[in-house]
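Data availability (excerpt). All sequences and predicted token strings are deposited with the supplementary files. A representative entry, Adenylosuccinate lyase, is shown inline so that the format can be inspected without opening the archive.
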Amino acid sequence: MSQLPIQPLSPLDGRYREAVAPLGEHLSEAGLNRARVRVEVEWLIFLTDHRMFGSTPLGNGQKEALRGIVSGFGEDDIRELAELEATTRHDVKAVEYFLRARLEALGIAGVSELVHFAATSEDINNLAYALTIDAAIGEVWLPKLRAVIGALRERARAHRADAMLAHTHGQPATPTTVGKEFAVFVRRLDRIAGQVEATEPLGKFSGATGTFAAHLAADPGQDWPALSRSFVESLGLVWNPLTTQIESHDWQAELYARVSHANRVLHNLCTDVWSYISMGYFTQIPQAGATGSSTMPHKVNPIRFENAEANLELSSAILDSLASTLVTSRLQRDLTDSSAQRNIGVGLGHSVLALDNILRGLGEIAVNLQRLAEDLEANWEVLGEAIQTVIRAEITAGRSTIADPYALLKELTRGKRVGREELAAFIQGLDVGAEAKTRLLALTPADYVGLASALVDHAD
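Structure token line:
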């Protein structure tokens, strides 16, 4: 066999690269290194702004040039850092040397010793991860989720009054509307999205074991916790005052649990839509040039939702693993989290890919009103619930002497198909008030949807 050129091992970096590429801006190794450079640059500027150890604030031009290293971070910088790491065998040390070389080129090597000052690698890494994860969620994952919620909300509104036979335990049940069922998912996902948005990314900057020991040794007169807090908050993060060498990652575990929860709700959506397609309630709109089966030309497969299911399962498996792994660190530090966190992009990538498929899939289905009407017409027995409930109300009001309305309807309907005429004859013979009898005789399965249409308003 011929030897292939080097190929991406993950389908996220191969077959599905286009769908998940925006995550690479933040959660790739290059994105992480750019964030590390940003943290180091901002720490250097912060120290000089506070005139630490006799330094003087950098000029606006110098600050702009330093921040330009971050904004202009590109291929040459990625390559240079890789070469430095190959020598140092340490990713954060490579960033330090990279930045020192830039200071030399900018003519401000006099503050070189303040690069990575009193910082352990995890001081840089935890802040870099917090920045990249927060950006990936806010700029990529959440907008994708919001787009799916928006598409579901549109369908909820459009089909709010389209009656549909419900199925509990897979059996015909009290009718609902298509719109109300879409609205249920809108409400569920909207709530989780709000929880994700409320996540507070935490950061620490307190040295090798979280004690500010080196800081205090260098200058015992400074309020280092206050400086640390000010620096962390200047990056838009929330300061964590009590840590070991690492920030404890609890906020990450909470975030991944919430994203995983969203995945599972989306998985439920996919299995429901798939089922409605198989029942004929939804039809699929053929896409030009697409093939459903290599041998059966008639097929239009629900591949968008099937693809999404698989990717949601993979995403949750990875994110659940991260959430359980990251909250444990042996004593004051081990490197388990270092390897685990490199897979955050993979976990979120499978979720983003699933969201992309769901959004496309929702645009490729239509509600089959004829099939809905046929199924409702074929299941008049679902009105048994309404009839026995009305009888109970009539008994309570003194307008009926029926002994056991539930048993009466059970005998008529359980495990049977009851048509319009049979049900009408049954209602005519009931011992109930005239108004109640008229109301029941006018009821049809398509009308028996309660407040389903009005409930859709809660999706807004």
